[in-house]
Design brief:
Order of helices and strands: HEHHHHHHEEEHEEEEHHHEHEEHEEHHEE
Distance between the termini: 43 Å
Mean pLDDT: 81
CATH topology of one domain: Heat Shock Protein 90
Helix content: 55-70%
Number of strands: 15
Largest sheet: 5 strands, mixed
Low-confidence stretches: 490-496
Radius of gyration: 56 Å
Shape: rod-shaped
CATH architecture of one domain: 2-Layer Sandwich
CATH class of one domain: Alpha Beta
CATH superfamily of one domain: Histidine kinase-like ATPase, C-terminal domain
Strand order of the largest sheet: 10-12-13-15-14
Number of helices: 15
């Protein structure tokens, strides 16, 4: 395509696509701004959440603090009289009960609380003689020692399991407190403990209770958020990874801080990204429509330019084709009018004038038929016709032209089969004449053009094939050769006559009969055109 024809299309493409691409860039920038705004709103909401949940966490922690008494890890020998220790060896219930209830009983020489020893002695004498709650209170709060577990085991009470569980929990807290005697959050083998010194022993929060508090404060969070509790560099509960949005220390437990994390950023950005997907989808659709429209416009423009060029070639070819026979007819007519031609030559001139007139008529008829087909004004007259007769008439008409080039027209089989079909005889005659004319044009001198008439085994379709011994046609041209105004390469255009509409007329005639025209050819091996039409279209 010439440069001056490409430029308007290029500028049109830029005028359509550049604004669309600009909108795409603006949409991307808008999406980034929306995402930043979503994160900013999330940080503000995280600060409010952190403050509210920190207050709640402080209150819940205070509610779950438990008290535990302390006792020496190793027994310390006590003082006392031998008479007091003899009471422990006897069976005097009253004396044992008095010793059990004496706050000044002290420790035995082995370092064990005498009150607890008295209680154990009473349990051996009569387990029902003293209230289980009183004994449990004595051994766990008033006089805790290494004997507490033994005393709780011997109690015959429904609450025995509860007392044992509480004591074991307190024992774990005491073990942690002895290792860390200041207020601290400790992760012991996985669970999190809090222990702190108290006036009468120690305070602690058990792991199960800490987890329960964490589950309570993390309820009703936004889908993108998660809470975690941390002390120093240690994460005590909650996710280890995520975007930290807010952090607030607790008021009454200053060594603990509550943090709000964005663990699902995709959910946080979902709205903006969904809108971006819709926007980009619409822009992509707009680009697709614009590109498709530009492609169609470019294709139509190219097609029109190609058709204009082909029409120009067609006009030039028709002018050339008309000029040759008209000039021949005029020269021979002038010679005949002058009376300077010998009698034997007069007959030959008349034959030449008749032949050139026939060729001129066929050319004009092709042009007129092409014009009618282009405008859809060609009228078809279908009737029952003998196909063999049509083929023979065409061969007789084209034999003089073939003989002029030294070609032979051969019909197969001989005689032709008896085939009748519902066709437009004039159109079929015109199609065969065009095919024979092409075969004669492209066949070298001395070649043979073969015409075959046949039908399929079921006699549903009839076929006429015309085979020449010309240069052949490349596979890339097999479909284009039937396009209007299309002619083969420049070398053949110079060497052969033609307007480029003959085969397009043949194709239109075949399609009007619900048939086909096909080509079998390869360079250097001639060509075979096959006209195939139903016997009853």
């Amino acid at each position: 395509m010439p440069r001056q024809n490409r430029s308007p299309l290029r500028w049109l493409s830029l005028a359509v696509l550049v604004p669309v691409m600009g909108l795409a860039v603006l949409a991307a920038l808008g999406t980034r701004a929306q995402i930043r705004a979503a994160w900013s709103e999330a940080r503000d909401e995280a600060k409010r959440l952190a403050a509210d949940r920190a207050t709640l966490c402080d209150r819940l922690l205070d509610e779950h603090i438990q008290q535990a008494a302390l006792y020496p890890a190793l027994p310390v020998p006590g003082n006392g009289t031998a008479a007091t220790d003899q009471v422990l060896d006897g069976k005097e219930v009253a004396a044992l009960a008095k010793l059990r209830d004496d706050p000044a009983a002290g420790l035995s020489p082995a370092g064990l609380p005498r009150r607890v020893l008295a209680a154990l002695r009473l349990l051996e004498i009569d387990s029902a003689a003293q209230p289980a709650d009183a004994v449990a209170t004595l051994v766990t709060r008033e006089c805790p020692s290494i004997l507490t577990l033994t005393a709780l085991t011997k109690l015959a009470s429904p609450e025995q399991a509860t007392w044992l569980a509480q004591w074991r929990l307190a024992e774990q807290a005491r073990a942690i407190f002895r290792h860390q005697p200041t207020a601290a959050w400790v992760r012991s083998g996985g669970p999190v403990w809090w222990t702190a010194p108290a006036r009468d022993g120690l305070q602690f929060i058990a792991p199960g209770q800490f987890e329960e508090i964490h589950q309570t404060i993390r309820r009703n969070l936004p889908p993108w958020a998660e809470l975690r509790l941390a002390s120093g560099q240690q994460v005590l509960a909650g996710p280890a990874a995520g975007e930290l949005l807010a952090s607030t220390p607790l008021t009454r437990h200053a060594d603990l801080r509550l943090e709000v994390m964005a663990t699902r950023p995709a959910l946080l950005e979902a709205g903006a990204r969904q809108q971006a997907r819709w926007t980009l989808g619409l822009l992509a659709f707009a680009i697709f429509l614009s590109g498709g429209g530009l492609w169609l416009i470019q294709r139509v423009v190219k097609r029109e330019q190609r058709l204009n060029a082909m029409k120009s070639d067609f006009v030039a070819s028709v002018s050339h084709e008309l000029r040759a026979p008209v000039a021949s007819i005029r020269l021979m007519a002038d010679a005949l009018e002058a009376g300077k031609i010998a009698p034997p030559t007069i007959r030959e001139f008349h034959q030449l004038i008749s032949r050139e007139s026939t060729r001129l008529s066929a050319l004009i008829e092709n042009v007129l038929d092409f014009s009618r087909l282009e405008r859809g004004r060609r009228h078809w007259h279908f009737a029952e016709c003998d196909l063999a007769t049509i083929v023979l008439d065409c061969v007789r008409m084209m034999e003089p032209i073939a003989a002029e080039k030294g070609l032979a027209l051969t019909i197969e089989p001989a005689p032709l089969p008896d085939l009748s079909a519902m066709v437009d005889s004039g159109a079929i005659h015109q199609a065969l004449v065009n095919l024979l004319d092409n075969a004669i044009k492209f066949s070298p001198a001395g070649a043979v053009v073969t015409i075959q008439l046949s039908s399929d085994e079921a006699r549903h379709r009839w076929h006429i094939s015309i085979t020449d011994q010309g240069p052949g046609i490349a596979a890339a041209e097999h479909q284009r050769i039937f396009e209007r105004f299309h002619r083969l390469g420049s070398e053949l255009r110079r060497e052969t006559q033609g307007t480029g509409i003959g085969l397009s007329v043949v194709k239109a005639i075949a399609e009007a009969h619900h048939g086909t025209i096909t080509l079998r050819s390869q360079p250097g091996h001639g060509s075979t055109f096959v006209l195939s039409i139903p016997l009853q279209p």
